[in-house]
Amino acid sequence: MAESPFRPLSGAVQEHLAHPRNTGPWPTELAHLTRVAGEAGSRTSGAFVRFYLALEAGQIRGVRYEVLGGPSLMAAASWLSECICNKRASPDQVPPGMDIARELELERSEHGMALLVEDAVLQVLKQAGNGRISKQGS
Amino acid sequence: MHSPKKVIYLDYAATTPVDPIVVEAMLPYLGPEGCFANPASVSHAAGRSAREAVENARAQIAGLVGAQPEEIIFTSGATESDNLALQGVMHCCHGGKGHLVTEKCEHKAILDTAHALEDDGHSVTYLTPQPDGRILPAQVADAIREDTRLVSIMLVNNEIGVIQDIAAIGAECRKRGVLFHVDAAQGAGKVPINLAELQVDLMSFSGHKLYGPKGIGAFYVRKSPEVRLDACMHGGGHERGFRSGTLATHQIVGMGKAFEIARERLAADATHNRVLTQRLRDGLMKLGGVHINGPEEAHRAGHILNLSFDDIVSDTLLYLLTDVAVSTGSACSSASRAPSYVLKAIGLSDERARSSLRLSVGRFTTEQDIDHAIEHISAAVTRLRSMAPRAKAG
Protein backbone atom coordinates (compact mmCIF):
# COMPACT_ATOMS: atom_id res chain seq x y z
CA MET A 1 0.00 0.00 0.00
CA ALA A 2 1.29 3.45 -0.78
CA GLU A 3 2.88 5.12 2.17
CA SER A 4 0.56 7.68 3.67
CA PRO A 5 2.50 10.84 4.62
CA PHE A 6 1.29 10.48 8.19
CA ARG A 7 2.70 13.61 9.74
CA PRO A 8 3.45 13.85 13.44
CA LEU A 9 1.05 16.18 15.21
CA SER A 10 2.15 19.18 17.24
CA GLY A 11 1.82 18.94 20.98
CA ALA A 12 -1.01 21.47 20.86
CA VAL A 13 -3.00 19.43 18.36
CA GLN A 14 -2.41 16.23 20.31
CA GLU A 15 -3.62 17.94 23.48
CA HIS A 16 -6.86 19.09 21.87
CA LEU A 17 -7.38 15.72 20.22
CA ALA A 18 -6.94 13.93 23.54
CA HIS A 19 -8.96 16.48 25.52
CA PRO A 20 -11.35 18.26 23.20
CA ARG A 21 -12.93 21.34 24.77
CA ASN A 22 -16.63 22.17 24.86
CA THR A 23 -18.05 18.81 23.87
CA GLY A 24 -20.93 16.87 25.32
CA PRO A 25 -24.36 18.15 26.41
CA TRP A 26 -24.97 21.81 27.17
CA PRO A 27 -24.75 22.68 30.87
CA THR A 28 -28.19 23.15 32.42
CA GLU A 29 -27.46 26.77 33.37
CA LEU A 30 -27.19 27.60 29.67
CA ALA A 31 -30.29 25.66 28.64
CA HIS A 32 -32.49 28.78 28.57
CA LEU A 33 -30.20 30.78 26.30
CA THR A 34 -30.63 31.47 22.61
CA ARG A 35 -28.40 29.32 20.45
CA VAL A 36 -27.25 30.19 16.98
CA ALA A 37 -25.60 27.82 14.49
CA GLY A 38 -23.22 28.34 11.60
CA GLU A 39 -21.12 26.00 9.54
CA ALA A 40 -18.33 25.78 6.99
CA GLY A 41 -16.80 23.12 4.76
CA SER A 42 -18.46 20.08 3.26
CA ARG A 43 -18.93 16.51 4.29
CA THR A 44 -17.93 15.23 0.88
CA SER A 45 -14.57 16.96 1.09
CA GLY A 46 -13.99 15.39 4.49
CA ALA A 47 -13.74 18.73 6.31
CA PHE A 48 -16.90 20.12 7.90
CA VAL A 49 -17.57 21.99 11.11
CA ARG A 50 -20.70 23.43 12.67
CA PHE A 51 -20.56 25.74 15.67
CA TYR A 52 -23.35 26.51 18.12
CA LEU A 53 -23.05 29.62 20.26
CA ALA A 54 -25.23 30.22 23.29
CA LEU A 55 -25.74 34.00 23.45
CA GLU A 56 -26.83 36.37 26.17
CA ALA A 57 -26.76 40.13 26.07
CA GLY A 58 -24.23 40.15 23.25
CA GLN A 59 -21.90 37.71 25.00
CA ILE A 60 -20.95 34.17 24.04
CA ARG A 61 -21.86 32.19 27.15
CA GLY A 62 -21.31 28.74 25.74
CA VAL A 63 -19.93 26.98 22.68
CA ARG A 64 -20.47 23.59 21.18
CA TYR A 65 -19.41 22.24 17.80
CA GLU A 66 -19.81 19.24 15.54
CA VAL A 67 -16.87 18.28 13.37
CA LEU A 68 -16.06 15.79 10.66
CA GLY A 69 -12.46 15.93 9.59
CA GLY A 70 -8.83 15.29 10.29
CA PRO A 71 -6.93 15.95 13.49
CA SER A 72 -6.08 19.55 12.55
CA LEU A 73 -9.71 20.49 12.03
CA MET A 74 -10.80 18.84 15.26
CA ALA A 75 -8.06 20.56 17.21
CA ALA A 76 -8.80 23.92 15.61
CA ALA A 77 -12.50 23.62 16.49
CA SER A 78 -11.63 22.75 20.07
CA TRP A 79 -9.09 25.55 20.37
CA LEU A 80 -11.40 28.20 18.93
CA SER A 81 -14.32 27.06 21.08
CA GLU A 82 -12.21 27.66 24.16
CA CYS A 83 -10.91 30.98 22.85
CA ILE A 84 -14.28 32.62 22.13
CA CYS A 85 -16.19 31.35 25.14
CA ASN A 86 -17.29 34.26 27.36
CA LYS A 87 -16.17 36.81 24.79
CA ARG A 88 -18.29 39.44 23.13
CA ALA A 89 -20.31 38.02 20.23
CA SER A 90 -18.49 40.08 17.65
CA PRO A 91 -16.33 39.20 14.65
CA ASP A 92 -13.44 41.20 16.05
CA GLN A 93 -13.27 38.71 18.92
CA VAL A 94 -12.60 35.82 16.53
CA PRO A 95 -8.89 35.23 15.95
CA PRO A 96 -7.90 35.04 12.28
CA GLY A 97 -7.37 31.54 10.95
CA MET A 98 -3.64 32.10 10.56
CA ASP A 99 -3.38 32.94 14.27
CA ILE A 100 -5.21 29.71 15.08
CA ALA A 101 -2.83 27.81 12.78
CA ARG A 102 0.16 29.39 14.49
CA GLU A 103 -1.12 28.62 18.00
CA LEU A 104 -1.66 24.99 17.05
CA GLU A 105 1.57 24.80 15.04
CA LEU A 106 -0.30 23.45 12.08
CA GLU A 107 1.63 22.39 9.01
CA ARG A 108 1.24 24.71 6.07
CA SER A 109 -0.92 22.19 4.24
CA GLU A 110 -3.35 22.22 7.19
CA HIS A 111 -3.80 25.99 7.46
CA GLY A 112 -7.05 25.67 5.56
CA MET A 113 -8.56 23.84 8.52
CA ALA A 114 -7.92 26.83 10.75
CA LEU A 115 -9.54 29.12 8.19
CA LEU A 116 -12.52 26.78 8.08
CA VAL A 117 -13.25 27.05 11.81
CA GLU A 118 -12.83 30.83 11.63
CA ASP A 119 -15.36 30.89 8.77
CA ALA A 120 -17.81 28.74 10.70
CA VAL A 121 -17.79 31.00 13.75
CA LEU A 122 -18.05 34.14 11.63
CA GLN A 123 -21.02 32.52 9.93
CA VAL A 124 -22.67 32.02 13.33
CA LEU A 125 -22.11 35.63 14.27
CA LYS A 126 -23.49 36.76 10.94
CA GLN A 127 -26.60 34.66 11.55
CA ALA A 128 -26.93 36.16 15.02
CA GLY A 129 -26.48 39.65 13.65
CA ASN A 130 -29.14 39.05 11.00
CA GLY A 131 -31.52 37.79 13.67
CA ARG A 132 -31.57 34.34 12.05
CA ILE A 133 -31.84 32.17 15.10
CA SER A 134 -32.04 28.44 14.35
CA LYS A 135 -33.68 25.87 16.58
CA GLN A 136 -31.94 25.33 19.85
CA GLY A 137 -28.77 23.39 19.20
CA SER A 138 -27.35 20.21 20.62
CA MET B 1 -6.71 -5.86 29.93
CA HIS B 2 -3.87 -5.42 27.45
CA SER B 3 -0.69 -3.84 28.68
CA PRO B 4 -0.83 -0.30 27.30
CA LYS B 5 2.68 -0.70 25.87
CA LYS B 6 1.81 -3.57 23.55
CA VAL B 7 0.42 -2.45 20.22
CA ILE B 8 -2.07 -4.77 18.59
CA TYR B 9 -0.68 -5.25 15.11
CA LEU B 10 -3.36 -5.51 12.45
CA ASP B 11 -1.36 -4.36 9.45
CA TYR B 12 -0.06 -7.67 8.12
CA ALA B 13 -0.86 -6.58 4.58
CA ALA B 14 1.77 -3.86 4.96
CA THR B 15 4.42 -6.16 6.34
CA THR B 16 4.84 -9.18 8.58
CA PRO B 17 7.22 -9.99 11.40
CA VAL B 18 9.95 -12.40 10.43
CA ASP B 19 8.97 -15.86 11.66
CA PRO B 20 11.35 -16.94 14.46
CA ILE B 21 12.11 -20.13 12.50
CA VAL B 22 13.13 -17.94 9.57
CA VAL B 23 15.36 -15.83 11.82
CA GLU B 24 17.11 -18.99 13.01
CA ALA B 25 17.57 -20.15 9.44
CA MET B 26 19.17 -16.83 8.43
CA LEU B 27 21.66 -16.47 11.28
CA PRO B 28 24.22 -19.05 10.04
CA TYR B 29 24.67 -16.93 6.90
CA LEU B 30 25.93 -13.87 8.75
CA GLY B 31 29.03 -13.18 10.80
CA PRO B 32 32.65 -14.29 10.41
CA GLU B 33 31.89 -17.85 11.56
CA GLY B 34 28.94 -18.14 9.24
CA CYS B 35 28.43 -19.00 5.60
CA PHE B 36 28.95 -15.43 4.43
CA ALA B 37 30.81 -16.05 1.18
CA ASN B 38 29.63 -14.69 -2.14
CA PRO B 39 27.43 -17.35 -3.79
CA ALA B 40 29.06 -16.45 -7.12
CA SER B 41 32.50 -17.44 -5.75
CA VAL B 42 32.14 -21.09 -6.67
CA SER B 43 35.88 -21.48 -7.01
CA HIS B 44 36.08 -22.25 -3.28
CA ALA B 45 34.08 -24.37 -0.84
CA ALA B 46 32.79 -21.40 1.11
CA GLY B 47 31.28 -19.89 -2.02
CA ARG B 48 29.86 -23.23 -3.07
CA SER B 49 28.17 -23.61 0.33
CA ALA B 50 26.56 -20.23 -0.11
CA ARG B 51 25.56 -21.17 -3.63
CA GLU B 52 23.96 -24.35 -2.36
CA ALA B 53 21.95 -22.38 0.19
CA VAL B 54 20.72 -20.05 -2.55
CA GLU B 55 19.68 -22.91 -4.80
CA ASN B 56 17.94 -24.62 -1.91
CA ALA B 57 15.95 -21.45 -1.25
CA ARG B 58 15.13 -21.16 -4.92
CA ALA B 59 13.63 -24.64 -4.80
CA GLN B 60 11.68 -23.78 -1.66
CA ILE B 61 10.11 -20.75 -3.33
CA ALA B 62 9.39 -22.71 -6.48
CA GLY B 63 7.78 -25.40 -4.33
CA LEU B 64 5.13 -23.05 -2.96
CA VAL B 65 4.05 -21.85 -6.38
CA GLY B 66 4.43 -24.94 -8.58
CA ALA B 67 7.34 -23.58 -10.60
CA GLN B 68 10.68 -25.05 -11.62
CA PRO B 69 13.54 -23.73 -9.47
CA GLU B 70 15.36 -22.38 -12.50
CA GLU B 71 12.32 -20.23 -13.27
CA ILE B 72 12.81 -18.25 -10.03
CA ILE B 73 14.99 -15.12 -10.09
CA PHE B 74 15.93 -13.23 -6.92
CA THR B 75 15.36 -9.49 -6.73
CA SER B 76 15.27 -6.90 -3.96
CA GLY B 77 11.51 -7.14 -3.62
CA ALA B 78 8.21 -7.30 -5.42
CA THR B 79 8.56 -3.67 -6.51
CA GLU B 80 11.73 -4.49 -8.40
CA SER B 81 10.13 -7.62 -9.83
CA ASP B 82 7.15 -5.56 -11.03
CA ASN B 83 9.48 -3.06 -12.66
CA LEU B 84 11.44 -5.87 -14.30
CA ALA B 85 8.24 -7.39 -15.64
CA LEU B 86 6.80 -4.23 -17.14
CA GLN B 87 9.95 -2.51 -18.30
CA GLY B 88 11.65 -5.73 -19.27
CA VAL B 89 8.83 -6.77 -21.57
CA MET B 90 7.87 -3.38 -22.95
CA HIS B 91 11.44 -2.36 -23.72
CA CYS B 92 12.40 -5.82 -24.91
CA CYS B 93 14.54 -6.31 -27.95
CA HIS B 94 14.21 -2.69 -29.13
CA GLY B 95 10.78 -3.58 -30.46
CA GLY B 96 9.45 -0.04 -30.60
CA LYS B 97 6.44 1.20 -28.69
CA GLY B 98 3.77 -1.22 -27.54
CA HIS B 99 0.62 -1.52 -25.44
CA LEU B 100 0.21 -2.65 -21.84
CA VAL B 101 -3.05 -3.63 -20.16
CA THR B 102 -3.40 -3.33 -16.41
CA GLU B 103 -6.06 -2.16 -13.97
CA LYS B 104 -6.74 0.87 -11.81
CA CYS B 105 -6.40 -0.88 -8.44
CA GLU B 106 -2.89 -2.23 -8.96
CA HIS B 107 -0.15 -1.48 -6.48
CA LYS B 108 1.79 1.70 -7.15
CA ALA B 109 4.76 -0.42 -8.17
CA ILE B 110 2.72 -1.33 -11.26
CA LEU B 111 0.85 1.93 -11.79
CA ASP B 112 3.86 4.22 -11.42
CA THR B 113 5.88 2.00 -13.74
CA ALA B 114 3.00 2.04 -16.22
CA HIS B 115 2.93 5.85 -16.09
CA ALA B 116 6.67 5.91 -16.71
CA LEU B 117 6.14 3.67 -19.74
CA GLU B 118 3.53 6.10 -21.03
CA ASP B 119 6.03 8.93 -20.65
CA ASP B 120 8.31 6.80 -22.76
CA GLY B 121 5.77 6.59 -25.56
CA HIS B 122 4.10 3.26 -24.83
CA SER B 123 0.33 3.14 -24.44
CA VAL B 124 -1.44 1.74 -21.43
CA THR B 125 -5.03 0.71 -20.80
CA TYR B 126 -6.15 0.85 -17.18
CA LEU B 127 -9.19 -1.37 -16.74
CA THR B 128 -11.92 -0.28 -14.35
CA PRO B 129 -12.78 -3.02 -11.87
CA GLN B 130 -16.27 -4.17 -11.03
CA PRO B 131 -17.79 -2.72 -7.82
CA ASP B 132 -16.43 -5.67 -5.88
CA GLY B 133 -12.94 -5.11 -7.25
CA ARG B 134 -12.84 -7.97 -9.70
CA ILE B 135 -11.58 -7.69 -13.26
CA LEU B 136 -13.58 -9.85 -15.62
CA PRO B 137 -11.61 -11.95 -18.11
CA ALA B 138 -13.80 -10.50 -20.85
CA GLN B 139 -12.58 -7.00 -19.92
CA VAL B 140 -9.01 -8.12 -20.48
CA ALA B 141 -9.90 -9.84 -23.73
CA ASP B 142 -11.64 -6.72 -25.03
CA ALA B 143 -8.68 -4.52 -24.12
CA ILE B 144 -6.06 -6.58 -25.92
CA ARG B 145 -5.00 -5.06 -29.26
CA GLU B 146 -2.59 -6.08 -31.99
CA ASP B 147 0.23 -4.16 -30.33
CA THR B 148 -0.44 -5.44 -26.79
CA ARG B 149 2.69 -6.99 -25.35
CA LEU B 150 1.77 -7.53 -21.76
CA VAL B 151 -1.17 -7.79 -19.37
CA SER B 152 -0.47 -7.22 -15.67
CA ILE B 153 -3.11 -8.03 -13.04
CA MET B 154 -2.43 -8.60 -9.35
CA LEU B 155 -3.52 -11.83 -7.69
CA VAL B 156 -4.77 -10.31 -4.42
CA ASN B 157 -5.40 -6.60 -3.95
CA ASN B 158 -3.55 -5.16 -0.98
CA GLU B 159 -6.34 -2.79 0.09
CA ILE B 160 -9.57 -4.74 -0.33
CA GLY B 161 -8.27 -8.29 -0.64
CA VAL B 162 -10.08 -9.14 -3.87
CA ILE B 163 -8.78 -12.31 -5.52
CA GLN B 164 -8.55 -12.05 -9.30
CA ASP B 165 -9.32 -14.99 -11.57
CA ILE B 166 -5.81 -15.26 -12.95
CA ALA B 167 -6.50 -18.70 -14.42
CA ALA B 168 -9.21 -17.35 -16.72
CA ILE B 169 -7.36 -14.11 -17.44
CA GLY B 170 -4.20 -16.05 -18.25
CA ALA B 171 -6.14 -18.24 -20.66
CA GLU B 172 -7.41 -15.16 -22.51
CA CYS B 173 -3.89 -13.79 -22.77
CA ARG B 174 -2.39 -17.06 -23.98
CA LYS B 175 -5.14 -17.42 -26.60
CA ARG B 176 -4.08 -14.06 -28.01
CA GLY B 177 -0.34 -14.58 -27.69
CA VAL B 178 0.10 -11.86 -25.07
CA LEU B 179 2.37 -12.24 -22.05
CA PHE B 180 0.67 -12.23 -18.64
CA HIS B 181 2.29 -10.91 -15.48
CA VAL B 182 0.82 -11.31 -11.99
CA ASP B 183 1.89 -9.36 -8.92
CA ALA B 184 1.51 -12.05 -6.25
CA ALA B 185 3.11 -10.08 -3.42
CA GLN B 186 -0.07 -10.16 -1.39
CA GLY B 187 -1.39 -13.49 -2.67
CA ALA B 188 1.51 -15.92 -2.29
CA GLY B 189 1.01 -18.10 0.77
CA LYS B 190 -2.57 -16.88 1.13
CA VAL B 191 -4.21 -18.49 -1.91
CA PRO B 192 -2.97 -21.59 -3.74
CA ILE B 193 -0.80 -20.94 -6.78
CA ASN B 194 0.23 -23.65 -9.27
CA LEU B 195 2.26 -22.18 -12.08
CA ALA B 196 2.53 -25.59 -13.71
CA GLU B 197 -1.16 -25.27 -14.54
CA LEU B 198 -1.70 -21.51 -14.75
CA GLN B 199 -1.10 -19.71 -18.00
CA VAL B 200 1.02 -17.08 -16.33
CA ASP B 201 4.34 -16.02 -17.80
CA LEU B 202 5.74 -13.73 -15.12
CA MET B 203 5.00 -13.42 -11.41
CA SER B 204 6.32 -11.17 -8.63
CA PHE B 205 6.83 -12.25 -5.02
CA SER B 206 7.72 -10.44 -1.80
CA GLY B 207 9.68 -11.84 1.11
CA HIS B 208 8.42 -9.54 3.83
CA LYS B 209 4.71 -10.11 3.12
CA LEU B 210 5.11 -13.77 4.08
CA TYR B 211 7.11 -13.69 7.33
CA GLY B 212 10.44 -13.39 5.55
CA PRO B 213 12.91 -10.51 5.72
CA LYS B 214 12.49 -7.20 3.99
CA GLY B 215 14.64 -6.29 1.03
CA ILE B 216 14.26 -9.56 -0.85
CA GLY B 217 11.82 -10.72 -3.48
CA ALA B 218 11.54 -13.16 -6.30
CA PHE B 219 10.45 -13.10 -9.89
CA TYR B 220 9.09 -16.04 -11.84
CA VAL B 221 10.02 -16.14 -15.52
CA ARG B 222 8.46 -19.01 -17.43
CA LYS B 223 10.96 -21.17 -19.29
CA SER B 224 8.59 -22.89 -21.64
CA PRO B 225 7.19 -21.31 -23.64
CA GLU B 226 10.17 -19.01 -23.29
CA VAL B 227 9.65 -15.44 -22.14
CA ARG B 228 11.93 -12.76 -23.48
CA LEU B 229 12.54 -9.61 -21.53
CA ASP B 230 15.32 -7.10 -21.09
CA ALA B 231 17.20 -6.89 -17.81
CA CYS B 232 16.93 -3.66 -15.83
CA MET B 233 20.08 -4.21 -13.79
CA HIS B 234 23.34 -4.96 -15.52
CA GLY B 235 26.66 -5.96 -14.07
CA GLY B 236 27.75 -9.56 -14.11
CA GLY B 237 24.83 -11.38 -15.65
CA HIS B 238 23.60 -13.07 -12.48
CA GLU B 239 20.23 -14.80 -12.33
CA ARG B 240 20.14 -16.00 -15.92
CA GLY B 241 21.11 -12.53 -17.03
CA PHE B 242 17.85 -11.04 -15.78
CA ARG B 243 19.16 -9.43 -12.59
CA SER B 244 22.80 -8.71 -11.93
CA GLY B 245 24.17 -8.10 -8.47
CA THR B 246 25.62 -10.11 -5.62
CA LEU B 247 22.99 -12.31 -4.07
CA ALA B 248 22.09 -11.64 -0.43
CA THR B 249 22.42 -15.20 0.82
CA HIS B 250 20.99 -14.59 4.29
CA GLN B 251 17.92 -12.85 2.91
CA ILE B 252 17.43 -15.45 0.23
CA VAL B 253 17.68 -18.23 2.79
CA GLY B 254 15.14 -16.37 4.90
CA MET B 255 12.73 -15.98 2.04
CA GLY B 256 13.15 -19.61 1.07
CA LYS B 257 12.44 -20.78 4.59
CA ALA B 258 9.43 -18.47 4.83
CA PHE B 259 8.00 -19.88 1.63
CA GLU B 260 8.63 -23.45 2.78
CA ILE B 261 6.76 -22.77 6.02
CA ALA B 262 3.95 -21.09 4.07
CA ARG B 263 3.60 -24.15 1.87
CA GLU B 264 3.26 -26.38 4.95
CA ARG B 265 0.84 -23.99 6.62
CA LEU B 266 -1.17 -22.80 3.62
CA ALA B 267 -4.49 -24.29 4.71
CA ALA B 268 -3.95 -23.70 8.44
CA ASP B 269 -2.96 -20.05 7.95
CA ALA B 270 -5.91 -19.46 5.63
CA THR B 271 -8.35 -20.85 8.20
CA HIS B 272 -6.71 -18.94 11.04
CA ASN B 273 -6.91 -15.67 9.10
CA ARG B 274 -10.48 -16.20 7.96
CA VAL B 275 -11.72 -16.99 11.49
CA LEU B 276 -10.04 -13.88 12.88
CA THR B 277 -11.28 -11.46 10.23
CA GLN B 278 -14.79 -12.82 10.62
CA ARG B 279 -14.54 -12.24 14.37
CA LEU B 280 -13.25 -8.72 13.74
CA ARG B 281 -15.96 -8.00 11.21
CA ASP B 282 -18.74 -9.30 13.46
CA GLY B 283 -17.44 -7.35 16.44
CA LEU B 284 -17.17 -4.05 14.59
CA MET B 285 -20.44 -4.41 12.69
CA LYS B 286 -22.19 -4.15 16.08
CA LEU B 287 -21.34 -0.44 16.02
CA GLY B 288 -23.81 0.10 13.21
CA GLY B 289 -23.02 2.29 10.22
CA VAL B 290 -20.13 0.01 9.23
CA HIS B 291 -19.67 -1.14 5.64
CA ILE B 292 -17.43 -3.75 4.07
CA ASN B 293 -15.53 -2.41 1.08
CA GLY B 294 -14.70 -4.82 -1.70
CA PRO B 295 -15.81 -8.33 -2.46
CA GLU B 296 -17.79 -10.83 -0.48
CA GLU B 297 -15.81 -13.47 1.35
CA ALA B 298 -15.74 -16.00 -1.46
CA HIS B 299 -13.62 -13.64 -3.56
CA ARG B 300 -11.58 -12.05 -0.79
CA ALA B 301 -8.29 -13.17 0.71
CA GLY B 302 -9.01 -14.15 4.29
CA HIS B 303 -6.43 -11.86 5.92
CA ILE B 304 -7.70 -8.49 4.69
CA LEU B 305 -10.78 -6.58 5.80
CA ASN B 306 -11.57 -3.07 4.56
CA LEU B 307 -14.30 -1.29 6.46
CA SER B 308 -15.86 2.16 6.30
CA PHE B 309 -17.37 3.79 9.36
CA ASP B 310 -20.11 6.40 8.94
CA ASP B 311 -19.51 9.87 10.34
CA ILE B 312 -15.77 9.67 10.87
CA VAL B 313 -12.63 10.50 8.94
CA SER B 314 -10.23 7.62 9.24
CA ASP B 315 -7.10 9.81 9.42
CA THR B 316 -8.37 11.10 12.77
CA LEU B 317 -9.38 7.63 13.87
CA LEU B 318 -5.83 6.47 13.26
CA TYR B 319 -4.44 9.11 15.58
CA LEU B 320 -6.79 7.98 18.32
CA LEU B 321 -5.89 4.31 17.88
CA THR B 322 -2.66 4.48 19.81
CA ASP B 323 -2.83 0.80 20.74
CA VAL B 324 -3.84 -0.65 17.38
CA ALA B 325 -1.73 -0.64 14.22
CA VAL B 326 -3.97 -0.44 11.19
CA SER B 327 -3.89 1.62 8.03
CA THR B 328 -6.12 3.63 5.79
CA GLY B 329 -6.16 3.83 2.06
CA SER B 330 -6.02 7.57 1.90
CA ALA B 331 -3.01 9.60 0.96
CA CYS B 332 -2.63 13.20 1.93
CA SER B 333 -2.00 15.57 -0.90
CA SER B 334 -1.34 19.24 -0.23
CA ALA B 335 -4.33 20.82 1.45
CA SER B 336 -6.80 18.06 0.70
CA ARG B 337 -6.86 14.47 1.72
CA ALA B 338 -7.11 12.39 -1.42
CA PRO B 339 -9.19 9.31 -0.75
CA SER B 340 -7.83 5.87 -1.62
CA TYR B 341 -7.52 5.46 -5.38
CA VAL B 342 -8.48 1.81 -4.99
CA LEU B 343 -11.72 2.59 -3.21
CA LYS B 344 -12.50 5.34 -5.69
CA ALA B 345 -11.85 2.96 -8.59
CA ILE B 346 -14.48 0.52 -7.30
CA GLY B 347 -16.97 3.35 -7.19
CA LEU B 348 -17.06 4.40 -3.54
CA SER B 349 -17.91 7.98 -2.67
CA ASP B 350 -15.21 10.28 -1.30
CA GLU B 351 -16.95 10.20 2.08
CA ARG B 352 -16.95 6.45 2.27
CA ALA B 353 -13.39 6.19 1.02
CA ARG B 354 -12.19 8.74 3.60
CA SER B 355 -13.83 6.82 6.42
CA SER B 356 -12.17 3.50 5.61
CA LEU B 357 -9.73 1.37 7.54
CA ARG B 358 -7.78 -1.57 6.27
CA LEU B 359 -7.35 -4.26 8.92
CA SER B 360 -5.21 -7.27 8.16
CA VAL B 361 -4.39 -10.25 10.34
CA GLY B 362 -1.67 -12.84 10.24
CA ARG B 363 -0.06 -15.91 11.69
CA PHE B 364 0.72 -14.34 15.06
CA THR B 365 -2.61 -12.57 15.57
CA THR B 366 -4.64 -14.03 18.42
CA GLU B 367 -8.32 -13.94 19.29
CA GLN B 368 -7.40 -11.79 22.25
CA ASP B 369 -5.78 -9.29 19.88
CA ILE B 370 -8.99 -9.18 17.87
CA ASP B 371 -11.18 -8.66 20.92
CA HIS B 372 -8.99 -5.85 22.21
CA ALA B 373 -8.86 -4.25 18.78
CA ILE B 374 -12.65 -4.32 18.61
CA GLU B 375 -12.77 -2.65 22.01
CA HIS B 376 -10.30 0.10 21.08
CA ILE B 377 -11.70 0.78 17.61
CA SER B 378 -15.28 0.81 18.87
CA ALA B 379 -14.41 3.30 21.61
CA ALA B 380 -12.60 5.59 19.19
CA VAL B 381 -15.36 5.46 16.58
CA THR B 382 -18.01 6.11 19.22
CA ARG B 383 -16.04 9.07 20.50
CA LEU B 384 -15.64 10.61 17.05
CA ARG B 385 -19.28 9.99 16.21
CA SER B 386 -20.32 11.83 19.38
CA MET B 387 -18.71 14.94 17.87
CA ALA B 388 -19.90 14.39 14.31
CA PRO B 389 -22.35 16.69 12.56
CA ARG B 390 -26.02 15.89 12.57
CA ALA B 391 -27.86 15.99 9.27
CA LYS B 392 -29.10 19.51 10.02
CA ALA B 393 -28.24 22.13 12.59
CA GLY B 394 -30.36 21.79 15.68
What is this structure, in a nutshell?
The complex is a heterodimer of chains A (138) and B (394). With 138 residues, chain A is of the alpha+beta class.
Describe what you observe in this structure.
The complex is a heterodimer of chains A (138) and B (394). Chain A has a three-stranded antiparallel β-sheet. The longest helix of chain A has 19 residues, at 111-129. The model of chain A is unreliable at 1-5 and 133-138 (pLDDT under 50). Chain A has 138 residues and is α+β, with helices and mostly antiparallel strands. Chain A has helices spanning 11-18, 71-84, 97-104, 111-129; strands spanning 34-42, 47-56, 59-68. In chain A, helix 1 (11-18) crosses helix 2, helix 2 crosses helix 4 (111-129) and helix 3 (97-104) packs across helix 4 (111-129). Chain A has one domain (12-24, 32-129): Alpha-Beta Complex (Sufe protein. Chain: A). Chain B has helices at 20-26, 45-65, 78-90, 108-119, 137-143, 166-175, 249-285, 314-320, 341-345, 350-354, 367-386, and strands at 8-9, 72-75, 99-103, 123-127, 148-152, 179-183, 202-206, 217-221, 290-292, 304-309, 324-325, 331-333, 336-338, 356-360. In chain B, the strands form four sheets. A seven-stranded mixed β-sheet of chain B has the order 2-8-7-6-5-3-4, with helices on both faces.
